[in-house]
Fold these 2 entries.
Entry 1:
Amino acid sequence: MKNFTLLFFFSILTIQIGFSQDVRFIDDIFTDVEVQENVIYGVNATILPLLGGQATEAVPRPLNADVYTPAGDTETERPLIILLHTGNFLPPSNNGGCGGTVKDNDMVNFATQLAQKGYVVAVADYRIGWNPLDPDQLTRTFLLINAAFRGVQDSRTAVRYFKKTVAEDSNPHGIDPNKIAIWGFGTGGYISYGSAFLDDVTDTFVPKFFFNATTPMVVEAINGNVDATTFGVVPAGYPVLPEGDTLCYPNHVNYTSDYQLGIAAGGANGEDSWIDENDIPFIGFHVRTDPFAPCETAVLTVPPPANLPIVEVSGACVTIPLVNAAGLNEVFDVNFIDDVSIAAETASGGVNGFYSFSSDDPAESAPWNFSLSEDPYGTNPAIPCQTEAVETQIVVDTMLAYATPRICLALGLGCDLTAVSTNDLDAAQVGLQVMPNPASVEVRFEAEENIQSIYVYDLTGRLVKAHTDINGLQFVMPRHNLASGLYVAQVRFENGFVTQKLSFN
């Protein structure tokens, strides 16, 4: 079996192609990025102070976003990507993790790189607040579905805000209001799924989202509609929340909440039946063994040490096949034979729009995230935050390489996705030398022509290293934490690529 895997892997490398160089929205076109902080995109009611005992009712709060734009760009009708951060619907001081704001390092990292490719990126916050430790499972479920519902409302409010700025404010961010995507990470992934597939409050009228046979946990008259364009007020006798409390204030009601693409890195969809043929294309990234958001259909639980069950949800392993069955991802049906697409197809079993990650770490849920310190918010997390930037950046580069051509297709950006070369070169043609091989610490690549990039795969086809924008005659690649064994390197040049076996001892 190992021999078959190796032969198959080399065979697919011989047909791989790359995208044209310097393609806007796929390649890094801009060096510098400008950031406008604290753009207020709406105002709505939060229950966080009520849950924390600082207030006796929900209170209005501004909804903020940091907007990233490519510096020096002359385009004025650019696609917009709205990023939603993680955080368990709680602030960093209470969520036990390493993130929870628009300043999270993964948000800054993704927003910067997307802006360098020519996108406008809004990293949006959203209302948070629930009690994961409530002793009653129904109450935990009620508070969580309401938190997710508010996140959906806020994400759609952000869409309408940016449309409003085009129509009424002379388009200060330089966006095309008909080319918008929402990309959620972790907790933001739950919001991204809900925003894409939850069409109406009545979609939540399923048994798991009812207090009892007659009392749903989400009601339009109480919570407002899914777009947050209607008022929501708590009536007498309703559970948990105070009578007369305003839970939703309308924002930007003259604009639609329509957008063109959803993406989730982690997170899960609240209900499979929400997906239908009238929804939008959707891309899912997920760690198959994610302990916090199941990739399959399973009961979501409060993380250890609480280990409290909440409600059944479905991650990308289930949701993206349903998206495909509804025909929503047919826009991606082009002949992708680039290396990242092949790796995704291999890992997902051919599921269109799904990139799954495997991990030997049972606690791994977000391999795309690293922090600048082990305690970025001064909250003394139980487990120090991941700070390994190099290996994490490989995951980020892989995700962007997978997502950006599909963003181009879903948003109709007219990207040139044609190949520049199908040439499988011989090492002698470009004077390529790789030494030492086998190696212990590092490998040196030297050639007589400029090396553009180097991608390294293990024998399952999984991308384990990616070094882009080399553009030089030599490059020293550190081993870092690659295990001993055989790998395959694809060394790319202007006129093709060389496939090279690597060995680490």
Entry 2:
Amino acid sequence: MTTNFKLAWRNLWRNRRRTFIAISSIVFSVLLASWMRSMQEGSYDSMIDNVVKFYSGYLQVQDTAYWSERTLDNSFEVSSEMKNQIKSIKNVSLVSSRIESFALAANHLKSKPAMVIGIEPEAEGQITNLSKKIKKGHFLKNGDTGVVLGQGLSNYLHLDVGDTLVMISQGYRGISASGLFVIKGIVSHPNPEFDKRMVYLDIETAREFYSAEGLSTSLVIMSGNHQHINRMKSEIEQFLPANNTVMTWAEMQPEIVQLIESDRGSGLIMLGILYMVIAFGMFSVVIMMAKERKREFGVVNAIGMQKNKLALVVFFETIFIGLIGCAIGLLISYFFCLYFYYNPIPLTGEMATATEQYGMEPYMFFSMEPSLFYSQMIIVFMASVFISVFPVYYIYRLKITKAIRG
């Protein structure tokens, strides 16, 4: 067996040009497949990141009844111990309390139902980047008694920074809630529906307004990578009280998951077509190699080398080419995609405008998830192994007299 390995390895470098052509076809195949998958998954990562930063966060701790009936009566008290335990979990980057409800927002002439969110201003600014979307005035600070309005809502009510907003609602346990709030800032929310109805208050001001001292409707948890959220959820569940539950962004926004899965399905179909093109390209290279060596095979067989040994040597040659090509392709693919990971491709024209309207950055992002790279290498290598059956079959079908004459 060692002799067969040595013969196969030496045969590769007898005709270096032919070997380089074969290896290059595999390198290009791995590079193209990895680049396509990295770009596809990178766009999903960007979409998920933007979606969770619109509102939900990656995870939320809630009362068990809150998601089915989103009222203040299903709020809960967030202990400092719970917060500290969650913050200590690996990959948790931020934890922030919220209290959410609804109110009738009005000026002296008009009124409109609004969604009211009491936030921890500093933490919320890091989650949703709202402080960067302020069009007028300034974002909330800890202890502020004013409000920040969505631009659509402020336009409807004809209110500006410095004006007074009237809010009427129902507080915790049915207590009547009403108040006057000075508008501190106007924010342009990337989601048009949110922009038309959002009102932000400091969480302590919101608790006072709703008579819900010390209560929160949710605890928002952020992470640097959505790949870790299922593990984080499992760890959080281990110490949560029985009356609390933790939900992932996917459970809170299943329509986004369906959109990604359907698009991923169509992407995999395109990738399958790409693999077929790659396989036919590799197959043509292997055919060329086998046909070029027809006389060589005939002579070697004629002087006494058995066909099964000859076929085994050629099979090892193909395996070596596949291994070398896949290894080089994996290395080049990683650094190639790494460049685009740190330097995403900017979108222009109508595509950039449409992307910005959905609140996303106008760039084509790339993912560096390791499985995207080694899976392409494995698939291309398996294809090369399958294709190596052809030269083996060709050798067994070889007629010595015709091969020598050829």
